[in-house]
Amino acid sequence: MTTDRRHQGPAFKVALVGGILTTLAALAMALSGPAYRMDLLTLGNAFGLLRYGAFTALGAAGLGLVALLIALVTRRALPALLGCLVILAGGALVAIPWLQLQQAQAVPPIHDITTDMQDPPAFVALVEARRAAPNAVEYPGEMTAQQQRKAYPAIQPLMLDAPLETVREAAEAGIASTGWDIAAVSDTRIEATATTTWFGFKDDVVIRLNETDEGTRVDMRSASRLGVSDVGTNAARILTFMDDLVRRLESAD
Asked: Where does residue 167 rank: exposed (0-12), middle (13-18), buried (19+ CB within 10 A)?
């Protein structure tokens, strides 16, 4: 039997269909975010496209499994290899939203995180932008604070043994390295907006500096403009920024 005739067997054809479906699923999932960012789709439709892409990838992985089983029975090496590739690709695509869902279920449904829950840094320059968005300008209150304390105990004010001006300059350099859009800078505060890569969600950040007897206290707040849960994004942003700020000051010594 020639190689061409083997390629025309049922296992190869099933694997080929699975490969086509995997490609379509990947395109749908990859384009869901950019389509929303360019206002081609509503957020609900973009999430729907992502969901349908995941279902298509799951179906493709199933076809890959069928192709693999047929290839094993008929002893066809190439269709077996293609079936394995389709299974792996489809499974990888399904894993993306599944892992996101697991992360969402592992964190509280909050979207406004701060190092100071008693006196959260307030938005000033970004007030109008936040008023135009679904989420509130003001800090949500004690219920959010309680959930944050339980989920993110490591988020605390940062005390630095350095002059306020030095800390502010390091904070500005850190913001510049992240690509956030700076809205305002003063002697004791910085406001900026971070934009997520895939869907382009806007999260607003305010950094407040206070000079104390021990040095400079840094408080930070990061709040999403849209959505009930941030899937841990704002907490991770604060922790990452604070760690980076400490490293910058240590390297400057």
From this structure: buried
